[in-house]
Amino acid sequence: MIFEKNMAKETAEFLLQxxxxxxxxxxPFTWASGWKSPIYCDNRIILSHVQIRTFIRExxxxxxxxxxxxxxxxxxxxxxAIAIGALVAxxxxxxxxxxxxxxxxxGRQNQIEGHIEKHQSVVVVEDLISxxxxxxxxxxxxxxxxxxxxxMVAIFSYGFEVATQNFKASEIELTTxxxxxxxxxxxxxREYVPEDDLFTLENWRRKPSEWLG
Length: 213
Hints:
It is a single chain. This protein has a single domain, classed as Rossmann fold (3-Layer(aba) Sandwich). The chain is built from seven helices and ten strands. The strands form three sheets. Strands 7-6-5-8-9-10 form a six-stranded mixed beta sheet, sandwiched between helices. By secondary structure, the protein is α/β, with parallel strands linked by helices. Strand 5 (73-77), helix 3 and strand 6 form a beta-alpha-beta unit. The two termini are 28 Å apart.
């Protein structure tokens, strides 16, 4: 779920302005998974824009503070949420750790980088939610080390039904600053894409794995 409508709208506008999210219904992108998509999201671009980076940091910090109080630490999901997670931890005056997709094959062979004690609590920070699998993989790694996961916050979610079901099954509460519905409304209102493309954008979101462009 999104946290606040006005926050979601403003975030969508920022992401479109700096082209952190690009919409191209007529010339779709190909994701690493092989899916064809009329949308491509790269939230790392946020880090290059000081005003927007500050806005996102403050939004995520506000969500965490109001929903969870202060956890013992902030956990970022590698690699996309390491930087923004560290900024949020700094804003809240909290320790920061991050979680790799899998344990390293060398050195200390850590999957969780940084210091966290058993039974301490974290809020997980993510940049982007698609199916939720990689995000929930980080949650599992934390739970295996007996770390309490209070919830997850993210910048943006595509709002796929499979993600909703995955988070429900894992009993993890997800709150995002913005989402696909708010993005598309803003994109059409501000004429980033013509209204004629609205059907294509909505149709893709219903069955992204089957969409061929």
